[in-house]
Design a protein that fits this description.
single chain, 442 residues, alpha/beta, Phosphatidylinositol Transfer Protein Sec14p, five-stranded mixed sheet, disordered C terminus, phosphatidylinositol transfer activity
Length: 442
């Protein structure tokens, strides 16, 4: 028994030694349990840094935890704003090819060195007038972006060369050549609002060679009339994007009156002027035409419509309306009460109500007719004296005879010499005969 009791303290001493060793390695953990006040007092006083950083670490952890929480908020807000900045207007995605067209616009403007189209300074896709201009070029090419880019390039190059804006501002044209040939009127259409009409009165031509002989001058005059009509459309003031497949209020109506001009079939200068006008206007003024009316059109004018089909799109051809009797034009515009009386309305004639380009009274009104009469007499006299030579000399007459078609007409009456002499006189007199026809058409 005693030996067992004596042996018991030995195992007790082992844990005591381990207990004493443990507090040395972890004094902080033993202090609260060990009854040693001295060590408990010394521990907090000797090591204030150890107790102080413990609570200080809590706010540090909180700040580090708060920082990443704030950062993602900023990131999320940035991510929400990013898609809003590059967001494209609806029309850029809705109209096929328009966005791509705008991407190429800066290069086109740089290449041509000209940035104005129909009075609109071409800018970016946020500029409504610019958007409408590009849509018109797209529609004219049935959505083909490459062709629209090519046409816009050619149109800008042409405008840079001829400068239509300056022509309208300062150019003045010969009254002898162009008086009574072109007008602009405007009427209120219930569907479209104010509608611009441009009128070309080819029956008012007094001297074919004088009016159409200088092709560049004729194109400048015709451009001035067209450009003034375009200015009245106010494309540069547009605030809404036009529809690609819908209505377009930035278009005009055109009326071409051919009363009394059946001899155009035989005249090469007129053919050249008509062809050049079609080429220039189909390139430089696409989709500005809502409808075009050819009135008092004789059947022999079929060649002109055939020529138009070569240069114009199918959509444009559908807008053409030939009318044999000019008085029936009023049936097409029942909403227009003040249409000129000559065209089936109740309004004043074009010479009184129409607007036109500035003209210069360079030659008295009676002189062109007198000159034409004298020229016809000279030609008739020459034909009577030298029939054979006269067949090759109708050039001095107001109606040139340099075409193959006219030569064929001249060859037919070769046998009866008197008849041959009479024919040139008839062709030399349309200048005088055309004037009354023009007056009636007004």
């Amino acid at each position: 028994m005693s030996s067992e009791i004596a042996a018991e303290p030995a195992p007790q001493s082992v844990p005591e030694t381990t207990k004493t060793v443990e507090p040395t390695t972890a004094a902080v953990e033993v202090n609260p349990t060990e009854p040693k006040p001295e060590e408990a007092v010394v521990a907090p006083t000797d090591k204030p840094a150890e107790t102080t950083p413990a609570p200080a670490e809590v706010p540090a952890e909180q700040t580090t935890a708060a920082t990443p929480v704030a950062e993602p908020k900023d990131e999320t807000t940035d991510k929400k704003e990013e898609p809003q900045a590059p967001a494209q207007p609806e029309y850029l995605t809705k109209i096929p090819g328009l966005n791509k067209f705008f991407e190429s616009l800066p290069e086109i403007l740089n290449k041509t060195g000209h940035t104005e189209m129909w009075g609109v300074p071409l800018k970016d896709s946020n500029n409504i007038p610019t958007v409408n201009v590009l849509i018109k070029f797209l529609r004219a090419n049935e959505g083909n972006v490459k062709q629209a880019e090519e046409q816009l390039t050619k149109a800008l190059e042409w405008r840079k060369e001829i400068n239509p804006i300056e022509i309208v501002k300062s150019a003045k044209f010969s009254a002898k050549k162009f008086e009574g040939l072109g007008y602009i009127t405007s009427y209120i259409d219930p569907s479209y609002g104010e509608t611009i009409f441009t009128w070309n009165i080819y029956g008012g031509v007094k001297d074919l060679h004088s009016t159409f002989g200088d092709l560049d001058e004729f194109i400048r005059w015709r451009t001035a009339l067209m450009e003034r009509g375009v200015q009245e459309l106010k494309l540069n003031e547009a605030t809404e994007v036009i529809e690609y497949d819908g209505e377009d209020r930035y278009q005009m109506l055109q009326v071409h009156d051919y009363k009394g001009v059946s001899f155009l079939r035989l005249d090469p200068t007129v053919k050249a002027a008509s062809k050049k006008t079609i080429e220039v206007f189909s390139t430089a003024y696409p989709e500005l035409l809502r409808e075009k009316f050819f009135i008092n059109v004789p059947t022999i004018m079929g060649w002109m419509f055939g020529a138009m089909k070569i240069f114009l799109s199918k959509n444009t051809i559908r807008k053409f309306h030939p009318i044999s009797n000019g008085a029936n034009l009023g049936r097409e515009f029942t909403f227009v009460e003040d249409l000129p009386k000559s065209y089936g309305g109740q309004g004043a004639e074009l010479k009184d109500a129409g607007r036109t380009v500035p003209l210069i009274d360079d030659i008295p009104a009676g002189e062109p007719a007198k000159a034409a009469t004298e020229a016809s007499k000279e030609v008739a006299a020459a034909k009577a004296e030298e029939p054979k030579a006269a067949e090759a000399e109708p050039a001095p007459a107001p109606v040139p005879a340099a075409t193959e078609a006219l030569k064929e007409e001249a060859v037919k009456p070769e046998e009866p010499a008197p008849a041959a002499a009479a024919e040139p006189a008839k062709e030399a007199e349309p200048a005088a005969a055309a004037a009354p026809a023009g007056e009636e058409s007004k």
